[in-house]
Amino acid sequence: MKHVIIGTAGHVDHGKTEIVRALTGRNTDRLEEERRRGISIVLGFAPIDLGDGVEADIVDVPGHERFVKNMVSGAVGVDLALLVVAADEGVMPQTVEHFEVLRLLGVRDAVVAVTKTDLVDSETAGVVESEVRDMLKGSAMEGAPFVRTSAVTGEGIEKLRQLLREGTLKAKQGRGGDFFRLPVDRVFTRSGIGTVVTGTAWAGSVRAGDELVIWPGGRKVRVRDVHNFDRALSEGQAGMRTALALHGIKIEEISPGAQALSPGAGEETSMINAVVEVSGIKGSRLVNRQRVRLHHAAAEILARAILLDRDELGEGEKGFVQLRLESPAVAFGQDGFILRTYSPMRVLAGGRVLDPLAPKARRFRPDLVAELEELSSRDPARIIAALVAREKLAGISIRRARAYGIPEKTAAAEAAALEASGAARWIGDRLFSAAVLEESGKRMYSVLERFASANPLIWGIDREQLRLEADMGGGPAFDYLLSKGRDENRLFFRSGKVRAGSGQLELSQRDLEMIGALGKRIREAGMQFAGYQDLIRIPGSEKVAVKYLHILQSEGRIRKIGGEGYMDSGVFDEMKKRLARILSSSGSISVGEFKDEFGLSRKYAVPLLEHLDSEGITVRKGDSRVAGPALQEV
Predict the structure, then answer these.
(1) Which of 30, 33, 239, 276 has the fewest Cβ atoms surrounding its Cβ within 10 A?
(2) Given a cut of 70, is residue 159 above it in pLDDT?
């Protein structure tokens, strides 16, 4: 079953509501003021019977210029336009403005009803039809079928119904997505039911018992009941006028303009990158930093329009903008919207959301313009490739793609194709640009080469220092490149350090001799560990000695004890084994006993015991030491 929204459009008093009543038997003017004044003020709704295979609902919009805001709200979700023009007046200002709204929103399918034909002759009706065809010329709605009608005599009503059926069957629905989405245009309460919201379901489906989230704000609610006009539904679907009775929210906590979404589907934004087209209405002009009224979904939000690639857009011109919102919204890629001037209020432009979660942009950036060109393509493969390239070392998740108007299944298929082509690579659950990974790898190896060149006697660079200097961020790409380097035998790891090329230092004969001399001196010192000041005299340079000692430490040949002492690792291990035997039999050892047992003065015994404590080999208990957890392993 196809579910379609038909939206009326046309000048005030051209008979939109009368035509809807003739088609549906319902009066969509539900307010007393509307019936008293004979004009529509708010949106009206009615189901229409178009025969098997189609479920359609009509949104009847106000025609008066004072209520264009309400007209725009109703037009945003339209699949098929019913353009109404009175035969006795022809094309009027609101006819043109309503047509511009539909055109700028990308509505492609329309049926034209020339109304009140009982008031004019056939020739006059023909002149009006010619005027309307001139207005539609060059738009996607050019070639729309016409029908002459009269709500008084019934002329053309059944033919109009048939044309609407044909139009709904071929109409291309712009809505998609694998989650439920309902822009809220009415909120009220019903006795015994509680808070009720209505709107046109833009995506997905909903059932009683489902959990939804109300945005902005992120309030969780549960659906009690689902209705379509007078019908209780087991399931509401995209393209249907839908009423939801909600549990968990009061009427004062939600207002028209909100959106009801499946959990996890929405994210608030204050900046949106978009492509816009300025209206063709004479005098229309959008300038940089102009304050505008954004009509998106069922909301009206004040915003600043930042032109990204020029200073001004004139009649009919297109360009990229960043809309900086004065209150939060939830938007998705490919959402249509209308811009109106702040004051006086008139239709200014229309557009599509390209990046609903945009960072603050700088103007006249060629890379940003190129990115927006890709995002505006409507091609999922190009959009995902652009996102992957833009996110660099953050990568993107498939779930993230839904924010850009791409269902998860489609995104997964396009991501698989990108990986198969070699253009992207999965790391965990995120997709990365292969070119970005290659560039990052080159940068990382360059840091390693510079470090090795500047520090020939240091085995490798600290892992986190490498991450920082290679500008690798905090994502998984760094770990991936390290693992890849290990697998390719290009990277080597030791004690939290990373080295490229070879796991061994390439040392000169003098370096080897000096390192051997230092090792020998430390070994000969035994448990009366060698002091730093004594050791640096061997190579004659403190700077060089530090590097030699670092090599000995990194190779595990020596241990640093206290602030300036060094002990041979073999000597240390023998001392530890001996200590284990002592504590195993006596249970504890005092400083004095330790000194006597190992033949040490207090100068050496105290820092050595403190080192043993820090390693968990011993644990201090008063003036004595007992076996620590690390000693149990000996």
Answers:
(1) 33
(2) yes
Which residues on adjacent β-strands are paired with residue 211? 222
Residue 479 annotated to the active site: no
Q: Residue 406 contacts by C-beta under 8 Å, 6 or more apart in sequence?
A: 333, 380, 383, 384, 414
Q: Give the bridge partners for 278, in sequence order.
A: 349
Question: What are the Cα distances from residue 71, in Å, to 62, 94, 342?
Answer: 6, 10, 17
The sign of the torsion formed by the CA atoms of 333, 334, 335, 336 equals positive
- List the catalytic residue out of 2, 64, 69, 576: 64
The DSSP secondary structure of 184-199, one letter per residue, reads: --EEEEETTTEEEEEE
Report the alpha-carbon distance of residue 353 to residue 376 in Å, rounded.
9
The yes-or-no answer on residue 16 being catalytic is yes
Contact 7/59 with Cβ under 8 angstroms? Answer: yes
What does the pLDDT average to over 416-426?
95
Closest residue by Cα to residue 540 from 562, 510, 507: 510
> Considering 11, 14, 16, 116, which one is annotated as catalytic?
16
Q: Look up 13 and say whether it is catalytic.
A: yes
d(CA 634, CA 632) in angstroms, rounded, equals: 6
pLDDT at 63: 43
Which of the residues 17, 24, 198, 242 is marked catalytic? 17
d(CA 66, CA 85): 19
Assigned token pair, 42: 């708010």
Bridging pattern class, strands 109-115 and 146-148: parallel
Domains and CATH numbers, the chain: 2-170 (3.40.50.300), 181-261 (2.40.30.10), 269-368 (2.40.30.10), 544-633 (1.10.10.10)
End-to-end CA distance of the chain: 76
Closest C-alpha among 629, 620, 615, 626 to residue 586: 626
* Catalytic option among 3, 11, 13, 392: 13
| pTM for this model (two decimals) | 0.79
Structure tokens at 460: 């490798």
Phi, psi of 171 (to 5 degrees): -60, 135
- Alpha-carbon distance 357 to 340, whole Å? 22
Alpha carbon 83 to its chain centroid, in Å, reads 37
Q: Is residue 263 helix, strand or coil?
A: coil
- CA gap 583, 625 in Å, rounded: 9
Residue 633 in this model has a pLDDT that exceeds 90: no
**For the stretch 595-613, what's the b/e string if a residue is b when 16 or more beta carbons lie within 10 angstroms of its beta carbon?**
beebebeeebbebbbebbe
- Burial label for 360, CB within 10 Å (0-12, 13-18, 19+), is exposed
What letters, b where the CB count within 10 A reaches 16 and e where it falls short, cover 467-497? bebbebeebbbbebbbeebeeeeebbeeeeb
Beta partners for residue 318, in sequence order: 277
Residue 85's beta-bridge partner residues? Answer: 114
Residue 3: beta bridge partners? 55
Q: How many CA atoms lie within 13 A of 365 on its CB side?
A: 11
* Percent of the chain residues topping a pLDDT of 90: 71
For the record, the structure tokens of 378 come out as: 């409507």
User: Per the structure block, which two tokens stand in for 291?
Assistant: 């304050």
Q: CA 98, CA 224: separation in Å to the nearest integer?
A: 37
What residue type is 536 in one-letter code? I
Edge-to-edge strands of the sheet including 530-531?
Answer: 530-531, 565-568, 558-561
pLDDT band of 81, cuts 50, 70, 90: very high
Confidence check: pLDDT of 65 > 80: no
Question: Do the beta carbons of residue 103 and residue 140 sit within 8 Å?
Answer: yes
> What token pair was written down for 6?
């038909």
